[in-house]
Every structure is written in structure tokens, then in C-alpha cells.
């Protein structure tokens, strides 16, 4: 009898627990529904808040730059229903606002400061149509801070400077350079402080190693930009003229130089063999006149003078010289006359 009574008590206790747990469950369900309804009511109310919006300025005149103290960010005070504001808060990390000073669709006036001739500015109120389009019709723009975006007018000068390509390359087998490396354009306009511009001899490209190349090779290279300078172009085309070559030999008389005054010199031998490479297209036109061969007496050592050969045509590459030095006989002019 006691066992049956105990069983009944256990059943009753379990049933009460279920009822209690169900009450808790129902409580949480109603709490969630109430919270959701409160949230819906809240986001449908009208609020005012601030949204941070980054910006980029395009087509700024070459002689201007965004003021250094500017953080390129606008604070937009907006009002609207909570849902719309929440959406904008979530989307504000998207691409920045583009302020195009040459836009025909959304004209933005650029003003010159009256008291400060080194600054220009735009009024952010002129940006409202662009921002309105960005936010949509459901959000009202209350205020834009700052009310002005300033630009520094760099009291700069301009110079047209030659482009100097910084490249390394290796001509493929049987190829050689035929002519100077050229850039297109060969010069660009640079804007910057006059005291620095006056010291610049040219504009360099960013270094590029082209590896092994053959035939005419054209490569686009970026201009190496220097802080506080602006450039009319940011990249150029570099043309490296390459052509197949032939290797041949020519004999040329040696010209003695720096001979002591009052003396004449006889060289042994009087001529040298020059081995050289030349582009095939120029082979027929090469002659002795395209070389300068000298023996500088000041290099005399052990009764021999060093021979030096220099091509006068930039397309010629000397590969070998025979011999490399010459013996000599030095005689006084008076002795020869006697």
C-alpha cells in the first residue's frame, strides 16, 4: 500500500514540474513577442542621428590638393524612421562619396578664398543632391559637417621634364639593341615647388626587370611619383629597339695621342683588328669612320702603350680588339730633320 502511495506522489510531482516548465516557456514566448513588437514600434518612429561618410575628390586642378588637416570624412545629420536609419548605419562602410569637380550632372562650384590666396573651397551644402541620391528619399538631410571643404592652392610651378626609364633586360640570343630606348611621351609636365623643380633633371619610372627579350619590345611603366608633386601622366610606354645582329671584323689605323712635345712616335703595329657586333640592317653601312682607335702615350708601361677603341655609332658593340697594346719607337723631331 505504501508503494502505491509513493508512486502516486511521484506522478503528481512530475505533472506539476511540467506545468511549471510550460509556464516558463509561455512566459518567454510572450516576452519575445512583446520585444519584437516594441522593436517594430521603435524602428517606425522618427529619429535624428549622425552618419560618418568618407569622401574622395576627383578632377581637382593640378595646382591644388586636399588640405592636409582634412580627414576626408563628412558627418551627416539625418532624420528618418528607425528602420531606414538602421539600414544606412549598416551600409555606411560601403564605398566613399565621390566628389567630381568636373561632373556636368551634379555641378559643384569651386570658390577662391578672399583673405587667403593659398586656398580654395567648396560648400558641402552643394553636395546635398549627391548625398540625397545616396541615402534615398526616405531620409532627410538635416546638416552636413563641416560646412566647407578646403583645398590648398600650391604656389607651384610647372616644368616639362624628360622621362628616364629605369629598366634592366637581357637581349635574347642573336639580338642586340639598335638605337636608343625611347619613351612615349618622351617628357611630361610636373607641378611642384619651384625650389625643388629647379633641381630635377628628369622623371624616373618605377624600376622594372624585363628579363630576356627579343625583337622590338614595348612595355608600359608607371611613373615614380614623389610626394608634393603632381604629374600630367602617371604611366608611359617604353620602346626598346632590338634586332638580330651579325659579328664581323674591320682593320683600323691607330692614332697616337699625348705624345711628348718635340717627339714623334712610331707604333708597332700601326693598326688593329676590331671585332664587333652590329644590327643586320646596318651591316653594309659600317666603315672605318665609325671607329676611333687611339694609343695614349700616358698609359706607357714596360715599353708598350695601351690601345683603346671606341665605336662612334651607338648601334655597334665591340667584342674583341687585337692586339690590346702596341710597342713604340720614340724619336726627337730634331733628329728626324737632321
CATH class of the largest domain: Mainly Beta
| Class per helix and strand makeup | alpha+beta
Could you tell me the strand content as a percent range? over 45%
**How many discrete domains?**
3
Helical segment tally?
5
Q: How would you characterize the largest beta sheet?
A: 5 strands, mixed
- Enumerate the spans where pLDDT stays under 50 for 5 or more consecutive residues: none
Rg calc: 42 Å
CATH third-level topology of the largest domain = RNA Polymerase Alpha Subunit, Chain A, domain 2
Spatial strand sequence of the major β-sheet: 20-23-24-26-21
Which architecture of the largest domain would the CATH scheme give at its second level?
A: Beta Complex
> What's the rounded overall pLDDT mean?
81
Strand element count: 26
Shape: elongated
The termini sit apart by 163 Å
Helix content: 10-25%
Concise description?
By secondary structure, the protein is α+β, with helices and mostly antiparallel strands. It folds into three domains: 108 residues, RNA Polymerase Alpha Subunit, Chain A, domain 2 (Beta Complex), CATH 2.170.120; 84 residues, Beta Complex (RNA Polymerase Alpha Subunit, Chain A, domain 2), CATH 2.170.120.40; 93 residues, RNA Polymerase Alpha Subunit, Chain A, domain 2 (Beta Complex), CATH 2.170.120.30.
Describe this structure in words.
There is one protein chain. By secondary structure, the protein is of the alpha+beta class. The chain folds into 3 domains: 46-153, Beta Complex (RNA Polymerase Alpha Subunit, Chain A, domain 2), CATH 2.170.120.30; 157-240, RNA Polymerase Alpha Subunit, Chain A, domain 2, CATH 2.170.120; 245-337, RNA Polymerase Alpha Subunit, Chain A, domain 2. The chain has 5 helices and 26 strands. It has helices at 2-43, 82-91, 128-135, 194-197, 333-337; strands spanning 46-58, 64-66, 73-81, 97-100, 111-112, 119-123, 140-145, 148-153, 157-164, 167-171, 175-177, 182-184, 187-192, 203-204, 208-213, 217-222, 230-231, 235-240, 242-253, 255-257, 263-268, 271-279, 291-296, 304-311, 317-322, 325-332. The radius of gyration is 42 Å and the shape is elongated.
Amino acid at each position: 500500500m505504501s508503494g502505491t502511495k509513493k508512486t502516486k506522489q511521484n506522478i503528481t510531482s512530475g505533472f506539476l514540474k511540467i506545468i511549471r516548465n510550460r509556464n516558463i516557456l509561455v512566459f518567454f514566448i510572450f516576452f519575445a513577442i512583446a520585444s519584437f513588437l516594441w522593436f517594430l514600434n521603435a524602428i517606425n518612429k522618427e529619429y535624428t542621428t549622425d552618419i560618418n561618410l568618407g569622401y574622395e575628390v576627383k578632377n581637382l586642378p593640378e595646382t591644388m590638393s586636399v588640405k592636409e588637416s582634412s580627414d576626408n570624412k563628412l558627418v551627416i545629420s539625418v532624420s528618418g524612421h528607425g528602420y531606414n536609419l538602421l539600414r544606412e548605419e549598416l551600409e555606411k562602410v560601403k564605398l566613399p562619396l565621390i566628389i567630381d569637380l568636373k561632373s556636368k550632372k551634379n555641378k559643384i562650384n569651386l570658390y577662391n578664398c578672399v583673405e587667403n590666396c593659398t586656398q580654395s573651397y567648396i560648400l558641402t551644402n552643394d553636395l546635398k543632391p549627391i548625398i540625397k541620391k545616396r541615402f534615398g528619399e526616405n531620409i532627410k538631410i538635416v546638416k552636413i559637417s563641416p560646412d566647407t571643404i578646403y583645398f590648398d592652392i600650391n604656389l607651384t610651378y610647372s616644368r616639362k621634364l624628360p622621362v628616364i626609364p629605369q629598366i634592366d633586360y637581357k637581349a635574347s640570343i642573336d639580338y642586340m639593341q639598335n638605337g636608343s630606348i625611347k619613351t612615349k611621351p618622351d617628357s611630361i609636365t610636373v607641378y611642384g615647388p619651384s625650389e625643388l623643380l629647379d633641381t630635377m633633371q628628369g622623371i624616373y619610372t618605377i624600376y622594372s626587370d624585363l628579363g630576356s627579350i627579343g625583337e622590338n619590345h614595348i612595355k608600359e611603366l608607371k611613373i615614380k611619383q614623389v610626394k608634393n608633386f603632381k604629374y600630367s601622366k602617371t604611366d608611359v610606354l617604353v620602346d626598346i629597339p632590338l634586332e638580330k645582329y651579325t659579328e664581323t671584323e674591320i682593320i683600323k689605323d691607330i692614332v697616337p695621342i699625348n705624345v711628348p712635345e718635340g717627339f714623334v712616335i712610331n707604333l708597332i703595329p700601326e693598326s688593329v683588328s676590331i671585332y664587333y657586333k652590329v644590327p643586320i640592317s646596318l651591316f653594309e653601312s659600317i666603315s672605318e669612320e665609325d671607329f676611333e682607335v687611339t694609343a695614349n702615350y700616358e698609359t706607357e708601361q714596360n715599353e708598350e702603350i695601351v690601345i683603346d677603341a671606341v665605336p662612334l655609332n651607338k648601334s655597334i658593340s665591340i667584342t674583341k680588339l687585337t692586339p690590346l697594346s702596341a710597342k713604340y719607337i720614340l724619336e726627337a723631331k730634331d733628329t728626324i730633320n737632321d
